[in-house]
């Protein structure tokens, strides 16, 4: 486990669907259990095995809209036809409890967080190539063809937004990517 010396920081990790950011993060969190992964709200239906309050807080469209209207989100975005958002209260609570927090959100949301909290550290996990990314996305067998096409269109826009991120980590090999992510995060904590 790595020692957390300084002030608590908010780390925001984004990457295109299928880039393997979930696997990289899971591995990082296993090695660094002092970090907490934020739980987002979404209007997307749960996938097989996903649990409400664990993977996401699954909200109806009306519930989500109500949170927007009442300014409850630190950030929110529409992604591939669904809405996703991070509750302000949840993040505030985690930081107050002295937790190191990681948000795994899309690039639109990440840039919104940076505007409101310039001290947040934005890290983008890149695929080695677009072809590798499309293959990985298909290999998950969780999305239909139309969704895959829609998500690949998002990739180019996301890569453009990633130019504004603080760091990029290429996921060519899991162990390398995790080591690189650790280097970035631990390095930032020392600042
Ligand atoms: P999935 O449906 O595959 O779980 O997630 C789709 C996308 O939504 C991913 O890029 C994921 O990072 C992003 N996402 C998850 N939670 C949030 C959130 O709270 N806010 C934003 N802006 N994006 C999110």
From TrEMBL:
UniProt name for this protein: Guanylate kinase
Subcellular location: Cytoplasm
Kinase as UniProt keyword: yes
Organism of derivation: Candidatus Scatousia excrementigallinarum
Broad EC category: transferase
The Guanylate kinase-like domain, residue ranges: 8-186
Major subcellular site: cytoplasm
Cellular-component GO terms for this entry: cytosol
Family the UniProt entry places it in: Belongs to the guanylate kinase family.
Annotated PROSITE patterns: GUANYLATE_KINASE_1, GUANYLATE_KINASE_2
GO molecular function, one term: ATP binding
Keyword field: ATP-binding, Cytoplasm, Kinase, Nucleotide-binding, Transferase
CDD domains per record: GMPK
Swiss-Prot/TrEMBL catalytic activity: GMP + ATP = GDP + ADP
UniProt cross-references to InterPro entries, sorted A to Z: GK/Ca_channel_bsu (IPR008145), Guanylate_kin-like_dom (IPR008144), Guanylate_kinase (IPR017665), Guanylate_kinase_CS (IPR020590), P-loop_NTPase (IPR027417)
SMART domains linked: GuKc
């Amino acid at each position: 486990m790595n020692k957390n010396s300084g002030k608590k920081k908010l780390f925001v990790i984004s990457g295109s669907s299928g880039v393997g950011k979930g696997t990289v993060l899971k591995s990082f969190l296993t090695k660094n259990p002092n970090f907490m992964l934020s739980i987002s709200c979404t209007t997307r239906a749960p996938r097989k095995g996903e649990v409400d309050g664990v993977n996401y807080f699954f909200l109806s469209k009306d519930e989500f809209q109500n949170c927007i209207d009442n300014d409850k989100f630190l950030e929110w975005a529409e992604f591939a036809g669904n809405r996703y958002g991070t509750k302000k209260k949840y993040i505030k609570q985690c930081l107050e409890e002295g937790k190191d927090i990681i948000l795994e959100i899309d690039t639109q949301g990440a840039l919104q967080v940076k505007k409101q909290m310039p001290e947040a550290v934005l890290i983008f996990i890149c695929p080695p190539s677009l072809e590798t990314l499309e293959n990985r996305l298909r290999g998950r067998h969780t999305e239909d063809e139309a969704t895959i096409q829609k998500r690949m269109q998002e990739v180019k826009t996301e890569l453009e937004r990633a130019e504004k991120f603080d760091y990029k980590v290429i996921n060519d090999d899991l162990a390398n990517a995790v080591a690189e992510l650790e280097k970035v995060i631990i390095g930032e904590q020392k600042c």
